[in-house]
Amino acid sequence: MFEYPVVHSCVFCQQENLVLIAENALAFAIRDRFPVRKLHSLILPKRHVGDSFDLTAAEVVAIFNLAREVRASILVEDSSIGGFNFGTNNGAIAGQKIAHVHFHLIPRRFGEEDPPAAKGSVG
């Protein structure tokens, strides 16, 4: 498997310090360390990319396929989930706190309010 260069100042490039819940050739998934909902997960490219609009077409497909896989495993784990929020923030002004693309996959349950502002969440 190809080894991507590590940006040493990037927490997401330090995969050996992360607990991966799933991966494929171009992407990996972890649980958010500061979840806004139980089982809140992050889907990331293995390559260090700061803006989702700079992802290759292959990376976009890999991320989306991995998100489907993680979504399926979350639904098996928690039958109370009725939907998901799935998205990303691009740039500090948009709330991105770590300059490595990451898509939030946030399970939503019936009867809950909108997630609070993600004060500690890695955006």
Helix/sheet category = alpha+beta
Task: Compute the number of helices.
Answer: 1
pLDDT averaged residue by residue: 88
**Tally of DSSP β-strands:** 5
Keywords:
123 residues; disordered C terminus; 5-stranded antiparallel beta sheet; alpha+beta
Fold blueprint:
Elements lengths: L19 E4 L3 E5 L9 E5 L11 H21 L3 E7 L15 E7 L14
Antiparallel strand pairs: 1-2, 2-3, 3-5, 4-5
Explained architecture:
The chain has one helix spanning 57-77; strands spanning 20-23, 27-31, 41-45, 81-87, 103-109. Strands 1-2-3-5-4 form a five-stranded antiparallel beta sheet, with helices on one face. Strand 1 and strand 2 form a beta hairpin. Residues 118-122 have low confidence and may be disordered. Helix content is 17%, strand content 23%. The chain is built from one helix and five strands; from the N terminus they run E-E-E-H-E-E. With 123 residues, it is α+β, with helices and mostly antiparallel strands. It is globular, with a radius of gyration of 14 Å.
Give a summary of the structure in a few sentences.
The protein is of the alpha+beta class and 123 residues long. It is built from 1 helix and 5 strands; from the N terminus they run βββαββ.
